[in-house]
Amino acid sequence: MNKKDGNKNSSRANSSRPSSKKSIPGGLPKRSQKPQKAKPAADEASVKRTPKPAKTTGNNSPKPLKSDDIRLNKYISNSGVCSRRDADIYIQSGNVKVNGEVVTEMGYKVKPGDVVNFDGAVLTPERKEYVLLNKPKNFTTSNEDDADHRNVLELVRAATKAKLQPIGRMDKNTTGLLVFTNDTDMIRKFSLPNQKSTKIYQVTLDRNLKFEDLEKIAGGVTLDGHKLFVDEISYIDGEPKTEIGLKLRTPNVKVVRAIFESFKYDVLKIDRVAFAGLTKKNLPRGNWRFLTEQEIINLKNV
Fold it and tell me: Is 215 left (phi over 0), alpha (psi -120 to 50) or beta?
């Protein structure tokens, strides 16, 4: 065997040995460097766009998609005639019809285009509106006719065509923040005795408030046999001691006057400067504005 043949045999012998994979990073065998044919783009796109099968329920029927259906009690509430809770009572008593048929089923859902008849009248749901007013003096929230004083609704009449109502009552001499809405659920919520939202008042007295009386009020006041807790009371910085700041949670404004009158003070003025986180900032007396989306959310979460 000549040297040339020996080199050939040696080359064959080396080629029969298994190649080591350690020389390839990651332990993977070296791939062929030949260019590969690209897959048709249409095939790839068709795979991506293949729709997933619809989810089915126990009876193999397709799962219904989210619709614009609305619960009957909410539909009634949105129309402004009553709260959802009261609507449930009307529904159970058979006073509600949908498309001419009496509906007593709780949780019944109204579809777009359905005609809802409530106690003999066809309902048209309104968009919820929320208006904040800085109330001036000599306007009343009472629905009774008063020749000497005008109703606060006159001040917000230009805001919307919706049928607004004030949240809570305010006498003609009390000024400050008052919220109006056609959201009957919110009106009811803020009228409950256990409502926890804070209200801040600036009270003007006929004479200086004694420090001992201030401390007694801070500890709580008994009115008509009921203990009323005061969140905070203080003199107002830079003002005479006739000007008092008072923070309460009760929805009844009359309580503010009653607190000081129980200590033999005459209340000259009451101004509500904050209501459930809302303030009078950039809202002059007698002016109104719509609440922002965030303010509405905050009110609903109080």
Answer: alpha
